[in-house]
Every structure is written in C-alpha cells, then in structure tokens.
Design brief:
Helix content: 55-70%
CATH architecture of the largest domain: 3-Layer(aba) Sandwich
CATH superfamily of the largest domain: ATP synthase, F1 complex, gamma subunit
Strand content: 5-15%
Distance between the termini: 38 Å
Structural class: alpha/beta
Oligomer: single chain
Largest sheet: 5 strands, mixed
Number of helices: 7
Strand order of the largest sheet: 3-2-1-4-5
Number of strands: 5
Length: 297
C-alpha cells in the first residue's frame, strides 16, 4: 500500500495536471469560437461557387481547363489534413486510419507501381507517413498556427501544376468536417477533376438549373471560375479541419479535467483510508505499550 507521502504527491501532481487541462480547454474554446465563425461564413460562398460551376459545366461544353478534364486514372494524389499538435482525442488517429485503409484497400495497386503521392498537411500526418516510408510528395507543417488563404492557394498551385504536367490524374482530400463542438466527421472528397454533379446537398435543393445568358462566354467564365473554386474549396477544407481540431481538443481537455477530478477523489479516499489505518496502528501500539508497562509493574 502506498504511503501517505506518496499519495499526497500524486494528489498534488493530478491537481497540477487538472489546472493545465482546464486552461487548455478554455483556450481551445476561444479558438473554436473564432474558427466556427470563419467556417460558417465560408460555407455559403463555397457552396454557391460549386453550384455555379456545376450549372455552367452542365449547360456548356467545358473547356480543357486543368481540374475539369477527366482522363484515365494512372496516378493518384491524396491530400491528408491532420493537426500540428496532439491532445485532441481521436482527431488525428481517425484521419490517419482512414487514409491508411484507403491506401491499402483502394489504391494498393498504385502504391505498388509507385503511382501514389501523399500531400501531408499538418505535422501529425507528416510524421506518421514519413516514418513509415509512404510516398510523401510534399509536406505542409505549421500552417494552422497562422492560417491564411495564401496557404490554400500554395497547396492548390502545387497540385494544379502536377495535374497539368500529367504527374497526377486524380486528387482526393481526407479531412475532418466540423459538425459541432463534440462531433467531427471524416470526409474523403474528390478535388480534381472537379466532379460536375458532386456538390453539397443544400446546393442541389436550392434551385433547379435555369438557362442564363452569359457575358462574356460561359467558357471564359468557367476558365476564370475553376481556379477560384479550387482555391476556395481548399481554404474551406483547412477551415473545417481547424474548427474540428479545436472542438476535439476542447472536448478532450474537458474529459481529461473530469477524469482528473475523479482521480483526485479516489486518491483522497485512499489517503483518508491510509491515514485512518496509520492512526489506528499508532493507537494499538500505544495501548499495547501501556498494557506491557502495566504487566511489568
């Protein structure tokens, strides 16, 4: 059985940890509130631009613009979006597990032929896949500490460049979609070529396709719209992941604080029991000693 001093030290240590987890929960809650406001503001534009592009490509013969032209899939790129930090529950492990399963089940033949490239956004995913000799083509670490639209544009510039050169024929993104503070959903989304009929459900229900007169031509509008669409969809994905990370961290730290409270209560009970046993032992020793002195006299 642990001594009183050891139990006291454990109680002090757990209380210190509890203070840290409570502080981290408050910080994550503040960051999540800002991140949630950003993603809620970005979703309508992302949905509308996707709907507009779907409308144009459905009514017009789309030009051979990078990101729209479908071709036989010989090389695949997976963009895996994780966090730069841990202590956010199963946020990172869910993404990594989904990516590994997809690589093994869907793209094993591409991996064997050297035709799979991973683009890792976030330190956790980068470290995992780099240490296990996966074909990591590019790494983006530290992007969430100062998240800005230029980061999304840089990622898409590299992907579009590889797509134009014929180095990749299909681009998929694996990320966490923000639902609420306690719920995130892992999404596997095709980014390029842009699937003309794959848009959010809300966009499909919003209005039926109507014929419009375009000025300039619809082909010119599509050429201008596709890069905006790709850049903003990547920006939306980064915002979704950032909000999901903060929500997951807030929930994880809240659970950690609750567990610390329960552990402190259990340790306090053990301390009281050990202290009571010690007092009882001392009383027995005193009584035994007094009885011995009485018999000796």
């Amino acid at each position: 059985m642990a001594t009183l001093r050891e139990i006291r030290r454990r109680i002090v240590g757990v209380k210190s940890t509890q203070k840290i987890t409570k502080a981290m929960k408050m910080v994550a809650a503040a960051k999540m509130r800002r991140a949630q406001e950003s993603i809620v503001a970005a979703r309508p534009y992302a949905r509308t631009i996707a709907e507009m592009l779907r409308h144009l490509t459905a009514k017009t013969e789309a030009p051979a613009y990078p990101g729209l032209d479908s071709r036989p899939v010989k090389r695949v790129a997976l963009v895996i979006v994780t966090a730069d930090r841990g202590m956010c529950g199963a946020f990172n492990s869910n993404i990594i597990r989904t990516a590994v399963n997809r690589i093994e089940e869907q793209y094993s033949q591409f991996t064997a032929g050297g035709n799979l490239a991973l683009y890792c956004v976030g330190r956790k995913g980068t470290d995992f896949f780099s240490k296990r000799n996966y074909p990591v083509a590019s790494k983006y670490v530290g992007v969430f500490s100062g998240l800005n639209f230029g980061t999304a544009r840089s990622i898409m510039r590299e992907l579009v460049g590889a797509y134009e050169r014929g180095e990749i024929d299909l681009v998929e993104v694996i990320y966490n979609e923000f639902k609420n503070a306690v719920q995130q959903r892992v999404i596997v989304e095709q980014l390029m070529p842009v699937p003309p009929s794959t848009v959010p459900v809300e966009a499909k229900k919003s209005r039926s396709l109507v014929d419009y007169i375009y000025e300039p031509s619809s082909a010119e509008i599509i050429s201008a719209l596709v890069p905006k669409h790709l850049n903003f969809q990547m920006w939306r994905i980064l915002l979704e992941s950032n909000a999901s990370e903060q929500g997951a961290r807030m929930t994880a730290m809240e659970n950690a604080s609750t567990n610390a409270r329960d552990l402190i209560a259990a340790l306090q009970l053990s301390y009281n029991k050990a202290r009571q046993a010690s007092i009882t032992k001392e009383l027995l020793e005193i009584v035994s000693g007094a009885e011995a002195l009485k018999q000796a006299s």
